[in-house]
């Protein structure tokens, strides 16, 4: 059995910071950030927990899907780091919603939403679920070194969610991983075990921007070409491309190598920065709520992230 997306939602912490505001904190400028990335502003959690806006995105998706929490058979949450190491963010969201189903987190860095769709597809195929909630939620601001201008300007906090039910939407999907720590990683804290002989390095996100850039452009082009072909479609058939919102220049570079019309690539990175695995469902929710998606539209989703993970899929709306 296949699935369709029957509802979407998104939510953000209330505080926003513009590039100009960041330039009061670190040696940067709106000109540097916006010309290299397309980002103008981002949300940053100051008083909210990650679960606060993750559960809000989930509740909005359930409302859009006219689905009660008790109807859910599974909650999958993609996040790089929840509010707690245990319990999972998915279990916290479950408690907030009042759902009674199994719930677990999945970490595939920025590719998490596509990975979650792939896992959900397996549940539907095995006839193990009728309603699945996916929540992709990230508080990237907590992973960043706010003294490192080369990374802290790039990211934002936010959550996107989708409710899935049996249908015929997924036409093709692929996920992959390369098994690499460099060029993008953040170490976990090591605790205070007196016997440990491993040295604690700082726990902030490290990135080699140029390496990520090259990997991302190649992965997006290759994956899009493959999933379009496997869906039995051509690039002309695609109505919307929803790329992971890491950097406008990455999206533009991938776009220049494919024949999909430029206006079909959608972005909102200027307002949200890179929200990691939340970026695609946030964009999907924006298009859905704006009434831009019509029955039968072909959507191409493509993502890459730490790991290095990759994923892409074709959905018929
Ligand atoms: N403000 C001002 N100057 C800066 C800043 C900043 N915020 N950050 C770095 N610089 C400086 C550097 O110090 C360097 O100065 P120098 O030449 O005097 O040494 C100069 O700007 C150029 O730095 P580069 O790293 O070469 O800049 P580049 O043009 O490569 O752009 C960027 C950096 C935007 C990160 C680019 O490499 C990129 O787009 N990489 C893709 C990675 C990405 O988007 N990652 C997102 C997260 S990954 C993910 O989502 C999976």
TrEMBL record:
Residues 104-179 form the Beta-ketoacyl-[acyl-carrier-protein] synthase III N-terminal domain. Keywords: Acyltransferase, Cytoplasm, Fatty acid biosynthesis, Fatty acid metabolism, Lipid biosynthesis, Lipid metabolism, Multifunctional enzyme, Transferase. It is found in: Cytoplasm. Pathway: Lipid metabolism; fatty acid biosynthesis. InterPro entries: ACP_syn_III_C, ACP_syn_III_N, FabH, Thiolase-like. It comes from the Bacteria. It catalyses: malonyl-[ACP] + acetyl-CoA + H(+) = 3-oxobutanoyl-[ACP] + CO2 + CoA. Its main location: cytoplasm. Residues 229-317 form the Beta-ketoacyl-[acyl-carrier-protein] synthase III C-terminal domain. The last Arg residue of the ACP-binding site is essential for the weak association between ACP/AcpP and FabH. This is Beta-ketoacyl-[acyl-carrier-protein] synthase III. It comes from Caproiciproducens faecalis.
């Amino acid at each position: 059995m296949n699935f369709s997306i029957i509802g979407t939602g998104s939510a953000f912490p209330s505080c926003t910071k513009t590039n100009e505001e960041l330039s009061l904190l670190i040696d940067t400028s709106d000109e540097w950030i916006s010309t290299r990335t397309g980002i103008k502003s981002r949300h940053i959690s100051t008083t909210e927990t990650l679960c606060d806006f993750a559960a809000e995105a989930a509740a909005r998706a359930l409302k859009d899907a006219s689905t009660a929490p008790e109807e859910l058979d599974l909650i999958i949450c993609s996040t790089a780091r929840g509010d707690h190491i245990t319990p999972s963010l998915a279990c916290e969201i479950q408690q907030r919603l009042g759902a009674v189903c199994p719930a677990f987190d999945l970490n595939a860095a920025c590719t998490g939403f596509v990975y979650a769709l792939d896992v959900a597809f397996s549940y539907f195929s095995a006839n193990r679920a009728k309603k699945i909630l996916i929540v992709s939620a990230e508080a990237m601001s907590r992973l960043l070194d706010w003294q490192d201008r080369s990374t802290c300007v790039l990211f934002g906090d936010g959550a996107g969610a989708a409710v899935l039910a049996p249908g015929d939407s997924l036409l093709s999907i692929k996920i992959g991983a390369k098994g690499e720590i460099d060029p993008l990683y953040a170490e976990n804290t090591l605790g205070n075990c007196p016997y440990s002989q491993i040295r604690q390095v700082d726990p902030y996100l490290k990135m080699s921007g140029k390496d990520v850039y090259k990997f991302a452009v190649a992965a997006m082009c290759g994956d899009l070409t493959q999933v379009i072909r496997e869906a039995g479609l051509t690039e002309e058939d695609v109505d919307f491309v929803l790329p992971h919102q890491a950097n406008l220049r990455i999206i533009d570079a991938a776009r220049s190598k494919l024949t999909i019309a430029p206006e079909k690539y959608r972005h909102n990175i200027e307002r949200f920065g890179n929200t990691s695995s939340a970026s695609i469902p946030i964009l999907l929710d924006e298009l859905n709520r704006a009434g831009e998606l019509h029955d039968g539209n072909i959507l191409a989703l493509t993502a890459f992230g730490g790991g290095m993970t990759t994923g892409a899929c074709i959905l018929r709306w």
